[in-house]
Amino acid sequence: MNHVLVAKEVSKKYGTYTALNNISLEIPENSIYGLLGPNGAGKTSLIRIINQITYPDSGTVLFNGEPLDPKHIAMIGYLPEERGLYKSMKVGEQALYLAQLKGMGKAEAKKKLKYWFDKFEIGDWWNKKVQELSKGMAQKVQFIVTVLHEPKLLIFDEPFSGFDPINANVIKDEILELKKNGTSIIFSTHRMESVEELCEYIALIHKSEKILDGKLTDIKKAYKKNIFEVGMQVFNPSEIIQELKEKLAIFEDYYEVNENQLNFKLQLNGKSTQEILTYLATKAPINHFVEKIPSANDIFIQTISSKNSNE
Amino acid sequence: MNKLLLIIKREYLAKVRNKSFVIMTFLSPILMVAMVILIAFLTQLNDSEKQVITILNESDFFHNEFVITESTSYIDFKNMSLQQAIDSTVNLGYYGLLYIPDAATLQEITDKSFFYTKEAPSTSTLDKIEGIFKTRLQQNRLQELGVSKQDFLEVDKNYDINLSTFSGDINIKGFNEIRAFIGGGFGYLIMMFIIIYGGFVMRSVIEEKTSRIIEVIISSVKPFQLMMGKIIGTSLAGITQFAIWIFSASLLMLVVIFIFDIDPATFTGANPSMGAMSTVPDVSMMNEKVLALGVEIFKIPWVMLISFFLVYFLLGYLIYSSIYAAIGAAVDNETDTQQFILPVITPLMLAIYVGFFSVFNNPHGPIAVAFSLFPLTSPIVMLMRLSSGLGEGGVPIWQVVVSILLLIITFMGIVWFAAKIYRIGILMYGKKPSYKELYKWLKY
């Protein structure tokens, strides 16, 4: 598999404060890569190094297999978390300026801006000043400016903050569309719902160190604890549960009176699902039997709290 | 390079299109001309108010000495007591009463004379009256010695020594001052430009921080490029503004002089009647002197001076505006800038004061030389010194070379230092940094 970006043992210190400690990452081409971590973990420091805003104290970063170089700036698009626009400048003029700073020609930038402005139905904003726009409107302009030069790698730092749910969806769809067209995307956030929806790969950074990375499905597999959620059609719950508990590791049981359904979780504890299912089927009809896959949020909280308690 | 040009263009246009900038650019010359007119008008108004002074003269020594002039007239009181004279003066609302008692000798009279006024009299009035007394005393003494008035005027001659440099250039007295004023004018211009446009650079950096656009931009260009683009763009806007000011102010001035027919001499402050009491200088001699001064002003090495003005202006402005940019990057809002601005303005002020006091007295004295080499003051002080010429009789060439070299070295050092602070500062929010903090940033 080709990697658009590889970081090898990157460290960065600010005075005595360590922002990044020996971080290594591999970001596969044409994927959405979630960079997760609590506030202050070091996500932004890493992103700034990728954007060549700051430089690592040690370690290397490869872009397309080459060490990072100023020429790569034009191939990266970055939407920072702290973002804004010149307030007294006109929208179109400003977008054109930012595009030219990324190395685009004026005519080309104009053409593409027109395409995007039409797509977002904001063509009539061209001559408005930024201070006349709402926050969400300005965010749209910033998004356009970020993706306009068709970068190979896009970096979004908390892209959905400041958007209402409808516009957040529009942006989400655009991100998926960009991925479909071959762009690699780094997606930095601490909001886990969006990770679940978008990311194929994740890395979890906590207190300047990477504590977890890989394919999201693999991580989930690794984090599942062979716990199953079961629902059964039962009319005498107290007797049944008593009986089951003698044989199986059952917890968190409760009875839904209206549905006559007994719900519980069970730990496999070395038994096969086959074995358990056969046994359960002899007791009562089974409504559902589902393996509990941890959500990204579960993994996030679990890893970080276990990390914290170890210290 | 291309990106730098883009930034310069944007910064220039952003500044030039700014409403308050446009208003200031076009309003200032009008304000300036209006002020000059106002001053001229007020000066005339002041002069036209006549002072009336009453005189109670009981002596025989004063007869026709009190001559009515444009600004003062005298009224003689006779056959009154002192109290009556005071009362009448007050009732008539006159400026003051001069009481000259009778006595045996002039000395005694002058010792006992009084000038009564409502409030403390103005110095010009006092000068006039005292001048009259002094002249009368001198005449009296001359009479006792048997010297006629004509003989005395022959004796009382002004003398100006002829001045020359060792190489034989004829100098004129007062010329050094004029040169220093011209140099000082250039120095002052530099200081104003640095304070005004350095402030613009600083505010522009703060604006980028508060609008949060900074990170978007420095993901495309180097912070150093952005800083330099900002400094250059803003200074070009400043030069545009200055050019418009100079052009429109001189145009307006011409129009005003033409329409109102104001005597340009009003502005120069040269009032020939002031010196009239002592000796009336030969008019033709005066003209000769003015002419010679004019020639000397033409002989000022303007081309050299203006070229050096550009060099020192450029280097000085770059140094100071980099510092301003770093200050802007270090803070979150303008109110936090105070603690950093004072140390920046101090050397500028020092340069101006040292320039005016020390360079005027002795353009090539040790203080003047020291300050014209020290890079933070040299743009201003060296220009003042350079108005007296370069090379022999003026500033030694090695001093100019050393000061420019020092400026260039300082410029590189300061820009390096400012760029470091700038690079870290623009991404720092919510902190009011101390000097200690800034020192730490240098090491990141």
Automatic annotation (TrEMBL), chain A:
It holds the Pfam family DrrA1-3_C. Residues 5-232 form the ABC transporter domain. PROSITE patterns: ABC_TRANSPORTER_1, ABC_TRANSPORTER_2. InterPro entries: AAA+_ATPase, ABC_transporter-like_ATP-bd, ABC_transporter-like_CS, ABC_transporter_ATP-binding, DrrA1/2-like_C, P-loop_NTPase. Gene3D superfamilies: P-loop containing nucleotide triphosphate hydrolases. One of its GO terms (molecular function) is ATP hydrolysis activity. Keywords: ATP-binding, Nodulation, Nucleotide-binding, Transport. Belongs to the ABC transporter superfamily. This is ABC transporter ATP-binding protein. It comes from Cellulophaga baltica 18.
From TrEMBL, chain B:
Pfam families: ABC2_membrane_3. GO terms for molecular function: ABC-type transporter activity. It is found in: Cell membrane. It is a multi-pass membrane protein. GO terms for cellular component: plasma membrane. The keyword Nuclease does not apply. Residues 19-419 form the ABC-2 type transporter transmembrane domain. The chain crosses the membrane at residues 21-42, 180-201, 239-260, 302-320, 340-360, 367-385, 397-419. Keywords: Cell membrane, Membrane, Transmembrane, Transmembrane helix. It comes from the Bacteria. This is ABC-2 type transport system permease protein. It comes from Cellulophaga baltica.
